[in-house]
Amino acid sequence: MQKDAAALVEQFLNHELPHLLASDRHRPDERMHSMRERQVVTLFGPIRLRRAYYVGPRGGRYPLDEHLGLHHRYTPAVVQLMCWAGAMDPSFAQAGEVLHRLAALDIPERQIQRVVNAQAPGAAQWMRQRPADKSAPPIPILNIQADMTGIPMRPEELEGIRGKQPDGSAKTRQIKLGCVFTQSIDAKGEPQRDPSSCTYLGSFEDVADFGQGLHAEACKRGYATARTVVFLGDGAEWIWNLVADRFRGAVQIVDFFHACEHLHQLCETLEPNPAHAKGLFDAWRRRLKQNGLPRILAEATVRGASLGPARARDIAGQLAYFRTHAARMTYRTFRRKGYFIGSGAIEGACRHVVAQRTKLSGMRWSIPGADHVLAFRCLIQSNLFDDYCKSTLKAS
């Protein structure tokens, strides 16, 4: 059936379509040079395409190729499959295997990689410049989250980067990831993400440029008219500097589970006995969730003063984290207002958007290579891939 369909497509494109396209005729300043043939890969398999080659002051061109929207020898529909598979499968080699088994297309992995690299800049630009839906009603609560994760890089991409290796070298380079989503309240009164409402943004840019991109994405999602904007992240300084620069007025929340990690460390410093430290942590964790941070700070200060100068300084340093973020840790108040207190959306995105494609065994990336793959992964996971294809790639 595929062979028969390919034969019909080949006959139509070679004998019928050129006569139907008026613009296939040469421009006044062009002349036909010759008829040339090439192999083109369609959804039905490869065909031979014979088309006119015109030359003029601006060089040579194939009008039929332009009308069909060919990318080298691939039709737009095949390009869509290559971009999807190249971004979503664990490797380009597996993407080629998937296309062979599910679509009967024999495309080398290097060709898939080249097509992804060629199409990704346009895909990223489309996502940044796509228009906002101005007809959408105001959003009750708009959520914004951000985090950072590492991607294993080639040695030349790590020059000058300080890492966690004993000699100060690095094996990974940090990429910033942001997400924007809306929420509703379920039957139990708990907040839940609205299905398919999350859009993602990933970038190797500095904090200022990343913040600009995240702010632009939030504006597309209704930031200007949202009744409440909630920004949730861990205690990293760069996140809250970004919020102060781009999202003033947003409700700021430190992820509860990150706060608990610091609380656990504080309890282990105060109580050398593991069993006592665990009991103290369980009690203080419940207290922290009930807006009990001031009481925790007071008790920890008293306990620390009796443990000697060295440990007291250590405890004072740990308490500084909680004092800095005290206003962002009123978790009972946040929960009563229907806000999330956990950054599960962005933590999950670090895994399913970034790690599942770029952090597998043996992988070493260049910055452009990782950027190109993640551009499509963000587009696909944001449920925008079909819109992108309809607006930029012809459906033939």
Structure, explained:
A hairpin with a 5-residue loop joins strand 5 (172-185) and strand 6 (191-193). This protein has helices at residues 2-20, 63-68, 76-88, 92-103, 109-129, 207-220, 237-246, 256-270, 274-289, 293-305, 309-324, 331-336, 344-358, 367-381, 385-392, and strands at residues 31-42, 45-56, 59-61, 141-152, 172-185, 191-193, 199-203, 228-233, 251-254. It is built from 15 helices and nine strands. With 396 residues, it is of the alpha+beta class. It is elongated, with a radius of gyration of 28 Å. Among the domains are: 2-68, no CATH class; 141-249 and 360-365, no CATH class; 257-328.
Order of helices and strands: HEEEHHHHEEEEHEHEHHHHHHHH
Rounded mean pLDDT score:
91
Q: What is the CA–CA distance across the termini? A: 18 Å
Structural class designation: alpha+beta
Q: How big is the Rg?
A: 28 Å
Task: Work out the strand percent.
Answer: 15-25%
**Total strand count, please?**
9
Give the uncertain stretches in residue-range form: none
Helix content: 40-55%
* Sheet with the most strands, sense and barrel status: 6 strands, mixed
What overall geometry do the principal axes of the alpha carbons give?
A: elongated
The number of distinct helices, counting runs of at least 4 residues, comes to 15
